[in-house]
Amino acid sequence: MDVRFLGGAREVGRSAIMVNDRLLLDYGMLAGNPPRFPVERPDPEAVVVSHGHLDHVGALPALLSGDRRPPIHWTPPTRELALTLARDTLKLHGGSYDCPFTEPDVKRVTQVSEPHGYRESFEAAGHEVTFYDAGHIPGSAHVLVDDGETRLLYTGDFHTDDQRLVSGTTARPDADAVVCESTYADVEHEARSVVEERFAESVKTTLWEGGTVVVPAFAIGRTQEMLLVCDAYDIPCYVDGMGTRVTEMLRRHPEFVRDGDAFRRAKSHARFVTGHDGQRRRIADQNAAIVTTSGMLSGGPAMTYVPEIRSNPMNKVAMTGYQVEGTPGRDLVETGSAEIDGRVMPVSAQVEQYDFSAHADREGVLSFLGSYEDTPVVVNHGDRCERFAAELRADGFEATAPEPGDEVTVTA
Fold it and tell me: 192-353: which CATH topology?
């Protein structure tokens, strides 16, 4: 089996892997200014998508330009998340050189969509493919690809520990080779229960003292996780931004969340913001947590909330996700000021960072790979892939870390 890496190798973003020059796994973008896309636009017979995050689906509609119509296979939530992201990308970049697809391309996605559940094998470009729950976000999947001779397991993004929104992965299907993500392969996460309790205590203290807490969160997965946390700890909260649409959508797919009843309660507990900046400014005066996009302060309603609360030291900004270098969120955490809407703003409000990561950490990745000790491992989707591959080799694995554009051959 020939496996070519068009993106996501030795980097986080623009994941795209071509199998046997016929089957494409993921086709994402690396958000930035300007955004970056896979090293080539292939012409696959079929596409299989692991999950609905921008770095795995962000460029997908571009594959449907011209007369190309490859079927796209994914879980039902991944389909809806991918369409939501595509429409949002069009709104932000449509008509500019930054956007590789058009509105008609996005409409074609619905025409070629083929949804599947977990553990339901299907045929795609002459390969037998099976999805397994990856425990990352609702609908996320490990992808097992069998070409009749070799079985390749593409992990996609995964988590081995339970989150409130989804359960950790327990799937370990037999495979002849594994392409494994390594985003946090050099990090040890604190226990989620400890992180939650520290977050809840900090937020409640601020509210009790009369302050407001802005909680920047990614729209997909993180917003819903924070709503569940707020409900569990009885923290009054608002939710704003694209996360409101994603939350509504996930209500339609209760079988893809860990606890459908808890999710319904959390949605009822939160108040959803549907208004304008005037309403947001009024909300910013309330003793509540405001869960809002964007998670890195690079857009969304956070652009209204943070300036409104920034000058009062009693208020708080509680970051809940990884902050990419060069983003306003990273600047705020490191320097106490951030460029928001074109001007640098010092923030007197307290700034805190919490690790609510939906990825496996070093212990989680190694425990997952413990089931594949005699299996070649190809390390991707990380900033330090080469180093992790070297550590795996020292532990007795056959491990490599290709570069974008590289092709590797795996055999049974």
Answer: Rossmann fold (3.40.50)
